[in-house]
Structure formats: structure tokens, C-alpha cells
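User: If you would, consider this record:
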Amino acid sequence: MARPNRSGVHIDGLLSNLSIAYMQAQDTFIFPKVFKPVPVDNQSDLYTVFDKDDFNLDEAQVRKDSTESAGSGYDLSDDNYKCEVFAFHKDVGDQIMANSGKTFNLMRDATEFVTRKILLKQEREWVNTYLASGVWGETLVGVADFDQISEETSAPIEMFSGEMVTMLEATGIEPNTLVMGYKVFNDLKNHPDFVDRVKYSSSDAVTEGIMAKLIGVDRILVAKSIVASGKGATKTTAFNFGRNALLCYAAPSPGLLTPSAGYTFSWNYAGVGNVAINKFYITEKKTTRVEAESAFDCKITASELGKLFTLVTEA
């Protein structure tokens, strides 16, 4: 054996400019992109709902001389929200802090860790609310109601644009947003319906923008975030959005007399639409706690302005 050997001249240490963390980028999460946050000062409250039919009734009449005009009114009701507070923390002890040297930035790492936990919780609450069966005006199921788009014989442009027509006719409001899981988007961008329409005019791949233009919506959002279950040999991962698509009208900004399929009520207590980070020292434990918090409520505010497509593509 050659002497001195490798371990005699170099002792492996941790690199200070590289580490590996399977951390999803903040932009991956769909939660803040679809339905705009509504800042609220109280954890729970009521909001006014106008009857959906009253504004679309044809009730004006010819007015004869010296007679009253025709008139009616509109019905009002109330709905409510409640912002639950979600929180998660990571403790950084004095001893590990003192022993970490210059290799680790433990406070930064702890902040990133707790932030991702809250972002994932926001995403899961969004999915559990808006992808639940039976919550929208209509839920369409692959094979039973339409051909899965993974089949080349399916007609996804006709399917989505046709449902846009039915929503507009039923509500007077045209859907402007199509949200889909990554598997759905991956099948759609390779589908003949889209490829054949752009192959002579562009050498680029089918993008969200091209797809939105062909279907007729203002925007297409692709949900790419994942969630893990278990660790090590028992770990499984899956896309949060699954094999689903949601066609809806999402108001560009919240306001009075402004309908939207959904809104995210965001309690100012924890920062509007954001993740609040707090750091404080716990004397009896000799540790610094890094805590993330968010207070919100994902709320369906107009079920007729959403259509859920599920099992859109094959597993």
C-alpha cells in the first residue's frame, strides 16, 4: 500500500458552499395563485351573498304615460368564514449552535424548514377544499363522462371549451382559469389536439400560454407540488393535485359585488396571504425557537363558477 495514504494527508470535512435538500421551490405551490387573498381583521365573520338569479331576470317593462315603472328587488343572504391558525416550529439549541462552526447557517435552515411545512399545509388545505367531490356545480369523471385525455381519440379542447359555454349560459360569467395537475398537463401538451394546431406555426413545445389560447381561458396554472408519506423504505410521494383539473372563474381581485368561485380569507393576525416567521429564545430550554404561522380559510364562494374534472388522465 502506498504511503502516506489519502486519509493521512486529508480528513474529509463538510463543504461550506454545498448541501443537498429536497426542498420544493415556493413558486411550486398553487395555493396563492388561483384565488386572491381577502384580508380580514377578525378570525371569523359574515359576508353578504346576493341571489344568483335576481340580476339575470328580464323584468323591465314598457312604461305608459302617468304610470309607475315596473320594479322588484333582490334577495340577500349571509355566509361565513373562519380562519384557522396553522403553525409549526423548529428549535435550534445553544449547544448545536455553538458546535456548528461556519459550515451551517442553522437559523436560515430552520426558517426554510418551517416555511415549507406551512406552504405544504396551505397547499393541502387548498386541495382538500377545492378538489373534494360534489362541492362544485358539476363534477365530471373520466371514462364515465368524458374520454381520458391520455387517449389520442379524446377531444380535450372541445371538452373544456364546451364546459365553458355551459357555465357562461348558466351564470352569465365566463370561466377564466383552468388549473390542472402536472400529469394532466404533460398528457395535454403531447395530445394531437394541441400539437396538430401549432406544428405548422411554431417549432416551440405546447406551453401553458398556447394551451390557454386554444381553449379560450385567460390562464392555465399547472400544479406541481408533491407530498410525502412516511420515511425511508416506507416512504411514498404523490402529486398534491393528482389527475384533476378545475375550470373556474377566479376574480382578478376581491371586492364588493365581485363574484368568484373561491376566495382565500387571510387573517391579518398572521400576515395577509403570507407565512409569518417568529424567532424567540426559550431560556429554560436554552434554545432558539423558529416558528412559522399562517391563518387562512379556503372558501368556495360561488359553486356554480367551478367545474371539477377528475380522473382526467390514466394513472
